[in-house]
Amino acid sequence: MKKLTLQSICGLLLILLLNTVFVGKTMAQIIPAKTTWEGRLSAIRIILKITEDSITKQPVAVFDSPDQGAMDLKISSLKITIDSLTAFSAVIGGGFYGAFNSDKTELTGYWKQGGVIPLTLKRVENPTEVKRPQMPKGPFPYGEEKVVYNNADKSIQYGATLTMPKSAKNVPVVILITGSGQQDRDETLFGHKMFWVLADYLTRNGIAVLRVDDRGVGQTTGQVATATSADFAKDVLAGVDFLKTHKGLDLKQIGLVGHSEGGIIAPLAANQSKDIAFIVSLAGIGISGMELWNYQAKIVFVKAGFNQEELAKIDGLYKMMYDLGIKYPDMNDIKKFFKPEFEAWSGKQSEAFLLKSGLKGPNSDKLISTLADRFYLPWMRYLVSYDPALVLTKIKIPVLALNGAKDLQVVAKANLAGFNKYLTLAGNKHFKTIELPGLNHLFQHATTGEMQEYGTIDETISPEILQIVADWIHQTTGK
Fold it and tell me: Is pLDDT larger for residue 229 or for residue 361?
C-alpha cells in the first residue's frame, strides 16, 4: 500500500477498458449469464456488467464509471475461472483481478496499473441509484443553444452550450472554466454536473452562460498532451470572440467563472483581453504551483503515516525534481539527467524510508519512472512553476474569490490570502474574498472534505454559493 501514495498524487484513476474476450469454462457453470458487479475505486464507483452476445452466445462485458460520466466501456480481455475473474485492458496496461467468495456473490481483489489498489466488487441486481436532486429538469424558462465555434486559425473546434434569459436584452454573460483534467461542459465529476447546475441558476437569474467542452472531450478538438493552463486561457479567449458575435449580450459585461485550475486560467485570460469585465474564482489558486503541489502531497503522505522528518525528505525530492525541470526544459534532457539526480538524492536516504515510500523494492523503478513522467508533463511543469504574483498583480477588474473551509485540495486560508495580497498590490479596489464554512472543493456541505466523500453527497453545489455568485454579478454589472 505504501506504493499507492505516489500513484495517488499523480492521479492514476483511469478507467478505460476495451474489447471483450472470454476464456475458461462456460460462464453459466460459474455465474449467471447476465450479472452486474459494483464497487468503489477510491471515490469512484466501478460497475462491471456481463452479458451474452445475442449472436455468438459468448460473454461480453463493459465497465461503467458513472461518477466520471463514462459508460459502456468494453473490456479487452475477460477471464473467468471457477475461482476468479480478471478484466484486463491492453490500452492502459492494467485492470481488475479478483477472487470469488464461496457463493459467487463477491469478488475480492485489486486494481493493478503500476501500483495496486484494493477493490471489491459485489454482485447486485441493479447498480446503486445516485441521488442528484439539483440536476436541472425542463421545461426551462430560458433559451438553450448548442453551439460550435473555432479559434482564430481554425485549428481547434469548440463544442458548447449557451443559455440565455428569454425575456432579457443586453444581459451580462459568463464563461465557465473547468478545473484540472479533461472535463465536459457540465464539469461532470462523481455523478455531479456542477456547471450545469450553476448555469441553470445563473440563467434563471438573468445571466447568460457559456459552458464549453474541454479539449479532447465531446465536440471540442485540440492538442491535450502538450497543452498547459496558458493554452487553455487561449481557449477561453476563443469563447470571448464567439460571444462578441452573438446578439442579446452586453459585450461590456463578459465575465469568467473558473473552478480550481480555472481560477488560474481566468486571470491568465483576463490579462490578455480588455473584453473581460470581471472574474469569479471558485476554489482558485492564490499560492504558487509548487506550494500547492507540496500541500496536496503532504495530505496523502500524512494519511500514509509519514512523520515530519519523512515529509521533509519528500519535500527535498520534489525540490530536486522542480529545480531539474527549470534547468532542463527539454523533455529529452530531463530523461537523461533525472536518473543520476534521483540516485544522488536517494543515496542520502535511509533504506527504511525508501522502502516505506515505495522508492525501493519490487516495481520501484516503474513507480519512479511514472512519477517523473507525470511531474515533467508540460501541463504539470507549467502548474508547479505558476507564480500568482506575476498574474494577479495585473488584475484591475472586479474579482470575487470563494473557497471552502473544508477544501483539502486547495486550502482556503492560504489561497484566499494570496488573492488578498496580490490584488491589493495590483491596486484593485473591487475585489472580495470569502471563506465558506463547511464546504469542500466542489462547494458541497461536507463532513470530512476528502475526495472519497464527493460522490456520496447528494448535493451538487451549495445553494448559498449559487446565490452569492449571482448576487455579486448583479451588483458588479448593475444589472
Answer: 229
Cα distance between residue 4 and residue 16, in whole Å: 19
Q: Which of 312, 251, 260 is nearest to 286 (CA)?
A: 260
Q: Dihedral of the CA atoms 336, 342, 347, 352 (nearest 10)?
A: -140
The domain tally of the chain equals 3
Which residue range(s) make up the domain with 296? 291-375
* Predicted TM-score (pTM) of this structure: 0.81
Residues 200, 270, single domain; the answer is: yes
Going along 101-216, which residue ranges are E strands? 106-113, 115-124, 142-150, 157-165, 171-177, 188-189, 192-193, 208-212
User: Is residue 345 a contact partner of residue 312, using CB atoms and an 8 Å limit?
Assistant: no
Q: Where in 178-264 does DSSP place strands (E)?
A: 188-189, 192-193, 208-212, 249-259
Same domain for 43 and 66, yes or no, is yes
Last residue of a domain, one of 90, 124, 158: 124
For 331-352, what is each residue's pLDDT tens digit? Answer: 777 878 888 989 999 999 999 9
Q: Note if the bond before 139 is cis, omega within 30 degrees.
A: yes
**Per-residue pLDDT band at 68 (split at 50, 70, 90):** low
Residue 274's φ and ψ, nearest 5 degrees, are -85, 0
Q: Please tell me the least confidently modeled range out of 52-66, 101-115, 387-401, 421-435.
A: 52-66
Bridge partners of 171, per DSSP, are: 249
Residue 54 has pLDDT above 80, yes or no: no
- pLDDT for 16 equals 28
Cβ-based neighbour number of residue 402 at 10 Å? 25
Q: Is residue 380 part of a domain?
A: no
Q: H or E stretch including 36? A: strand 35-41
∠ at Cα 359 (355, 363), nearest 5°? Answer: 95
Could you report the per-residue pLDDT of 362-407, keeping only the tens digit for each?
A: 878 877 888 888 888 899 999 999 999 999 999 999 999 999 999 9
Same domain, 74 and 109: yes
- How far is residue 241 from each of residues 29, 32, 170, 281, measured CA to CA in Å? 61, 56, 17, 21
110: DSSP letter: E
With contact defined as beta carbons under 8 Å apart, do 190 and 44 qualify? yes
Chain centre to alpha carbon of residue 136: 22
Measured from the Cβ of residue 208, the count of other Cβ atoms closer than 10 Å reads 26
Q: Which of 87-91, 106-110, 271-275 has the lowest mean pLDDT?
A: 87-91
Q: Choose one of 375, 400, 427: the last residue of a domain.
A: 375
Report how far residue 181's alpha carbon sits from residue 408's, in angstroms, rounded to the nearest whole number: 17
